[in-house]
Amino acid sequence: MILRTRHPGLVGGVAAILTTGLDQASKLFLLHVLHLADHPIRLTPFFDLVLAWNIGISFGWLQSDSQLVQTALMAVKLVAVVALAIWLARARSVIAATGLGLIIGGAIGNAIDRLVHGAVVDFAWFHLQIGEKTFSWYIFNLADVAIVAGVIALLLDSFRSAPAKTP
C-alpha cells in the first residue's frame, strides 16, 4: 500500500524535522550522557560505538581543518539544502517527499555539527575480525543513514510510473 496525500511536501518536511531531531539527540546523548569521547562502547563483536570527528565530507574525503574549506563545505551544503527544499515543495509522491526530507534532515544534522563542533560527529562502526585480518566499514551517524535511505527512496520513486517532479 502506498500512502497518498494531497500534501507530500508536508510529509517530507516532517521527515526532515524528525531526522534532524533524532540525529542531534543521538549525538548529544552519546557525547554528554555516555561520554563516548572517553571510551568506545562495544555492543556486539561486529558493532561498536566510537567517537570520530569528521572534518571532511562523506567517507572522510576532503579532510581539512582549514577555515576556508569548512566555509566552502557549509556553502555547498546550504545550496544543496535549498535546491532539495525546492524539489521537495514540487514533489508529487510521498515516497519522493519522504526521501527528500530524509536527505535534507541528514544534511542539516551534519551541518549543525560542523557549526557547533567544527566537525561532524560520527559514532557507528561495523567491523569484522577474521584471524589477524580486520574488515572495517566507515564510521557514520544517523544523519548519514537518513541520507542513504533518502537516496534509496528517490531511486524507488524513479521506478514508479509517475516519477517525482524535479525542480
Shape: globular
Poorly predicted runs are: none
Our count of helices gives 4
State mean pLDDT (0 to 100 scale).
89
Strand content: 15-25%
Q: Give the neighbour order of strands across the main sheet.
A: 1-2-3-4
Helix content: 40-55%
Whole-number total of structural domains: 1
Structural class determined from secondary elements: alpha+beta
In total, how many beta strands?
A: 4
**Pattern of helices and strands:** HEEHHEEH
Main sheet makeup: 4 strands, antiparallel
**Rounded Rg:** 17 Å
Tell me the distance between the termini. Answer: 27 Å
Q: Can you give a write-up of this model?
A:
The protein has one domain. Helix content is 54%, strand content 16%. It is built from 4 helices and 4 strands, in the order αββααββα. It has helices at residues 8-33, 67-90, 94-117, 142-158; strands at residues 41-44, 47-54, 120-130, 133-136. The protein has a 4-stranded antiparallel β-sheet with strand order 1-2-3-4. α3 packs antiparallel against α4. It starts with 7 loop residues before the first helix and ends in a 9-residue tail after the last helix. The model has no long low-confidence stretch (mean pLDDT 89).
